[in-house]
TrEMBL record:
Record carries keyword Membrane: no
Name the UniProt record assigns to this protein: GntR family transcriptional regulator
Pfam families found in the cross-reference section: GntR
Lineage, opening ranks: Bacteria, Bacillati, Bacillota, Clostridia, Lachnospirales
Record keyword DNA-binding present: yes
Protein keywords: DNA-binding, Transcription, Transcription regulation
Highest taxon of the lineage: Bacteria
Originating organism: Anaerostipes hadrus
Amino acid sequence: MKIIISNVKNQPIYEQIYEQIKNLIITEELKAGEMIPSIRGLAKDLRISVITTKRAYDELEKDGFINSVAGKGCFVAEKNLELIKEENLKKVEQYLEKAVKLSRTCGLTKDDLIDMIKIIGKDE
C-alpha cells in the first residue's frame, strides 16, 4: 500500500491518509478482508506521529471502511454498497458543479449541458 503525504497541501496529514486509503478501498485495490499496515508500522513508514495515523484509522473505522480486531490488526471491511454509492454520488455532484460553473463562462445554457450529457451518454 502506497501512501504519499504532501506538506504543501492545506489538508491535515490524517485526512490525506484517510482519503488515500478510502480511495484504495473504493477502487478495490484493497480488497475486503485484506489486512492493512498497523498504525505503528504506517506511522514509521511515513515518518509521522502514531497519533496522526491512529486518527486516520479511527475515521476509516467510524465510516465503515475498516475493522479493527484486537490483537490481530486492521482489515478492510466488507463492502457497504450504499456507502460506496453515496461516495460516488458525491463525486458526480462535484464534477457536475465544476461543469456548470465552466459552462457559464462559455455562455452555455442548462439545455446545452443536458444535450451534451445525452450525447456523451450515447457513446457508452
